[in-house]
């Protein structure tokens, strides 16, 4: 399967990847002792640089729950697994939500869907717009996932590519 990169209406302003706050790093240390950043394929890093995305393939700062505070999503490696985690700001303390746990793959990365971006719900077979910023976990060899914060938790949705829908 060839790598399919989906470009949403993402702000492509130049900017450095977000630095994780100390309290997020502390939570990562507590939950995943010895964690490290995931390895990112040079091709994915180059794509992010070419599109001048204001976040990194392994970390995003955005407002996932719509409360006006900056939340974070990260992919880290721990105990031989790659874990995608969202950290919601709760008055300076961060609440962790594990989104996915997978075998490490340098072609897997995070993608930001901005509030208001158009998307499609393949369960309900209806288009919709994101009510808050949302997180995509994009895979090379399987269907990507989208995580939206709805009714107090992250809801997982499949995000098939056009190629997969044609099969």
- Cα-based radius of gyration, to the nearest Å: 15 Å
Number of helices: 3
**What helical percentage do the residues reach?**
10-25%
Overall strand count: 11
Low-confidence stretches: 1-15, 163-167
- The assembly state of the depicted protein chains is single chain
How far from one another are the termini?
A: 12 Å
Strand content: 35-45%
How many structural domains?
1
Provide mean pLDDT, rounded.
87
What is the N-to-C order of secondary-structure elements (H for helix, E for strand)? HEHEEEEEEEEEEH
Tell me the major beta sheet.
5 strands, antiparallel
Question: What gross morphology would you assign?
Answer: globular
Class by alpha and beta content:
mainly beta
Quick recap:
This protein has 167 residues and is mainly beta. It has three helices and eleven strands.
Explained architecture:
With 167 residues, the protein is mostly beta strands. The protein has one domain. It is 14% helix and 38% strand. The chain contains three helices and eleven strands. It has helices at residues 22-31, 42-50, 162-166, and strands at residues 36-37, 59-62, 71-78, 81-90, 93-102, 109-113, 118-121, 126-129, 134-138, 145-150, 153-158. Strands 1, 2, 3, 4 and 5 form a five-stranded antiparallel beta sheet that branches. It has a four-stranded antiparallel beta sheet with strand order 6-9-10-11, with no helix packed on it. A two-stranded antiparallel sheet has the order 7-8. A hairpin with a 2-residue loop joins strand 10 and strand 11 (153-158). The longest helix is centred in the first third of the chain and has 10 residues, at 22-31. The radius of gyration is 15 Å and the shape is globular. Mean pLDDT is 87; it is low at 1-15 and 163-167.
